[in-house]
Amino acid sequence: MPHRGFLGSGRDDKERDAFPCSPGLVPPCGHVREGNPEGLRVPQGSPHGQSTGAERTRSYQTTREWRDAGSPRHQHSRATVARVTSDEEFSALLMRHRREIRVHCYRMSGSFEEAEDLTQEAFLRAWKGRRGFAGRASVRTWLYRIATNVCLDALARRPRRALPDELGPAADPAGEISALDVPWLGPFPDLLLDPAAPDDTGAAVVERETIELAFLATIQLLPPRQRAALILRDVLDWSAKDTAELLGTSVASANSALQRGRETLRAKLPARRAEWSAPDSTTAEETALLRKFVAAYESADVRAVAAVLSEDARAVMPPYSLWFDSRDRILGALGPSFDPASPYYRGSFRMVPVRANRQPAVAGYLRRPGESVYRAFGVCVLTVRNGLVTAMAAFETAALAPYGLAETFEETVPTIADPATATAETGRLGRIGG
């Protein structure tokens, strides 16, 4: 039986190297500036042995030209390109919509890293076509049209993204583990969901029901054009006419695609989902549960982990194909990785509370046997209902830079009271628990 990690699984360093995090975007004009437009604390080093600290820094930077254009002196709301008098102003106008376009590309693609690439491509197309924009619609609408078509082009070239529980039956804890090189669904950090400050671009608040993992996994089942129709109509509140125009089809065909998409959602999503979906911020109950969850992992206490899981809890851990459908199976797989006497012992954990997809989550750090440093070990997104964890999705290849966290964990950081404060603004890592 291979060694066990976040959810009773894991891979050795050679396997980890086979699944590197995407190094992200290269600035469009070939320049790399100092600083960071998203306010992220980008760490040095890589837990995956592929991308360097400099490469990760480039992932969240733009060109000097675009950075300067985004300064407060260039404030546009419903301006059109027809009223923009300079390339600098146009750059500022695009950058004001960057976050919501990235979220749109994430809903379409199911991957934060791919959404970064798709957003970049959409903005490059907009930049190249800026002289031909007639101003008959708002810049925001124009960008959504470009981004949707960029996504449709990309989705036509690859299979849909999925989670392991969609690909086969639940596994035995002692079963063999294998990593599959397929497109996997990934998490999106809440830190990058909302604008850094209120604005008047018309962007809507990203509600949990339209970004949580259950919703994202379900809409990936839809053919790309159905997916686009559903997102445009039900998430972005576009009209049937505008949706049909974007998709290059009739209103009747666009409405038909929407209805088929809605039927799939009704069939696949939990029937009482609207009743148990939690607020967009971490509640006091979730904070208390996170404390217990983190303490259980950091003390390697299997019984304490059992106390925070529901009996029918599910656990997935891409890129591995196996998944577990009960608390007993999760604990059976997790036990060996907590036991120093086991050949599958992987070391000790430290965890930092974060949020992803409007859900509570933890960023994991692992100190392997013989090492003195806790190194990044991905992100685990939790679904909480009735005071217990009902689902765990561990993404061991997820980079921590988008969450404002470093690649190594410092033991000397102070305790924090609220998971929402574990962001880049703290300037240091935070821990829940004593």
Automatic annotation (TrEMBL):
Gene3D superfamilies: 1.10.1740.10, 3.10.450.50, Winged helix-like DNA-binding domain superfamily/Winged helix DNA-binding domain. CDD domains: Sigma70_r4. PROSITE patterns: SIGMA70_ECF. Residues 1-76 are annotated as: Disordered. Residues 47-63 have a biased composition (Polar residues). Keywords: DNA-binding, Nucleotidyltransferase, Sigma factor, Transcription, Transcription regulation, Transferase. InterPro entries: NTF2-like_dom_sf, RNA_pol_sigma-70-like, RNA_pol_sigma-70_dom, RNA_pol_sigma-G_actinobac, RNA_pol_sigma70_ECF_CS, RNA_pol_sigma70_r2, RNA_pol_sigma70_r4_t2, RNA_pol_sigma_r2. It holds the Pfam family Sigma70_r4_2. It comes from the Bacteria. One of its GO terms (molecular function) is DNA-directed RNA polymerase activity. Residues 93-160 form the RNA polymerase sigma-70 region domain. The keyword Acyltransferase does not apply. The keyword Nucleotidyltransferase applies. Residues 214-265 form the RNA polymerase sigma factor 70 region 4 type domain. Belongs to the sigma-70 factor family. ECF subfamily. Interacts transiently with the RNA polymerase catalytic core formed by RpoA, RpoB, RpoC and RpoZ (2 alpha, 1 beta, 1 beta' and 1 omega subunit) to form the RNA polymerase holoenzyme that can initiate transcription. This is RNA polymerase sigma factor.
